[in-house]
Prior knowledge:
Structural class: alpha+beta
Number of strands: 9
Radius of gyration: 19 Å
Mean pLDDT: 83
Strand content: 15-25%
Low-confidence stretches: 1-11
Distance between the termini: 37 Å
Amino acid sequence: MSDVISSFGKGLDSYLTKDQIRKSTPLVFADAPTNPDVSDKYLFVNSETIIDDLAKLNWFPVTSAQRKSKGKSTIFSKHMISFQNPDIKITSKDGDDAYPRIIMTNSHDGMQSFQFSVGIFRMVCSNGLVVADEKFSSFKIKHKGYTFGELRNVVVEAVKDLPNKVEVLNNMKSRILSTEEKRQLALDAMLIRAGVKTLNYDEETIDEILEPKRSEDRGDDLWRTFNVIQEKITQGDFHAALTGAKVRKVRKIKSFEKDMKVNKELFKLATNLI
């Protein structure tokens, strides 16, 4: 599996055009299922339809990505688009504002439903945060009779759940962590990224993970600590070493599927501390 192809909108007034998406994520525009073994009940609906229908509901594409498999037609691969509504914003007294996002994943090989998760986009650091766990909403629409009404229901339920999201974020902001809790959270986050249950990283690695990149993220509350760790774990650009081992540079997660998986697990890890 090769690196993900990504495209990003810049700013709230600049959303991705179809031409931009076509260049970076051509899978969106497949015109037929390519898997000959799809069920007779499978109704092909490409992701371009979702773009058009969400636009009618005032949700517009801001990022897109696709998985590219070596040696195979990319038409079989999974892809992702995230959408943002310019009129829906989570404001904060401390200026740490955020925008909810709807993240859609799909493939055109008949192997999965349209899947929708809810994310939070922080303005201060441009982190895309996927937060679909038991505390947040996630939805599926099967390729067996898609309708605009089904999609509208997904959006309605996602927006209806916003007060729950705000409550969770406020609880994270009010939860003050001890030094030991912060260091354990950073270590556990590294284990999530590595996909293992136990590893011993040296103290300098934990220090670097916990070092904020911007002054707005300095503090001992769970929300800011979590965002510092989340940015480091998903974006990389820091050095890490197992105890007594060689120091290596940690790089950005390139697979959008792994990025989403790690984000969900990190958020669940953090909210367990509330």
